[in-house]
Specification:
A hairpin with a 5-residue loop joins strand 7 and strand 8. The chain is an alpha+beta fold. Helix content is 35%, strand content 35%. It is built from four helices and eight strands; from the N terminus they run H-H-E-E-E-E-H-H-E-E-E-E. The chain starts with a helix and ends in a 5-residue tail after the last strand. An eight-stranded antiparallel beta sheet has the order 4-3-2-1-5-6-7-8.
Length: 187
């Protein structure tokens, strides 16, 4: 069967050469090569905020306290299942997780208990924030305001050259746009 295919291609090339000249033959050869050439490798996208959280929690199971993109890495702070704090870095290209500080003792046990018991996780807060204001998540931070007892997630969403802060209530999951800034540095 392979010989028959080569014979058909050769016959078609001869017909094209006679009928259309060398330019038509070159076009026919290019078209045939395109059909048989392997597909190009897909372009790899950067690891987004959700991917960084998933990678960090796979390496160090627990609850995300904060997430922040800094150039080519995500910084993810996690309160582990053992109650200890870990600072992780996730590479935006490979998704590889590096541990900066693991099992640090955190002095803010009250805040950690509130974070661990919050009904809305960082992942849910990111989804709610993006639903309220479209764009890419650039950071998420737990905020336990002791003055009035409110607990919420502060999520920064970037859309074009604007960064918008969205507060997500840690109990209800309600997202409220709280402000917008221009982002001149493009990070």
């Amino acid at each position: 069967m392979h010989r028959k295919h080569k014979a058909r291609v050769a016959t078609a090339a001869a017909v094209v050469l006679i009928a259309g000249g060398p330019a038509a033959a070159a076009a026919a050869h290019t078209a045939d090569s395109a059909r048989t050439a392997p597909a190009a490798a897909p372009v790899r996208a950067d690891v987004d905020a959700a991917g960084a959280v998933a990678a960090a929690l796979k390496k160090y199971p627990g609850v995300v306290e904060s997430l922040d993109r800094d150039g080519a890495v995500w910084h993810v702070d996690v309160i582990g299942k053992n109650g200890k704090h870990a600072e992780l870095t996730v590479d935006t290209r490979s998704g590889k997780v590096f541990t900066e500080n693991a099992a640090d003792t955190d002095d803010d046990d009250g805040g950690n208990k509130a974070l661990v018991s919050a009904k809305v996780t960082a992942q849910q807060a990111m989804k709610a924030a993006v639903a309220a204001h479209s764009g890419q998540v650039r950071s998420v931070e737990w905020d336990d305001d002791d003055d009035n007892g409110s607990r919420y997630w502060n999520v920064e969403i970037q859309s074009g050259n604007k960064t918008t802060n969205v507060h997500v209530d840690a109990t209800s999951g309600k997202a409220t746009v709280s402000g917008s800034d221009s982002d001149d540095d493009g990070n």
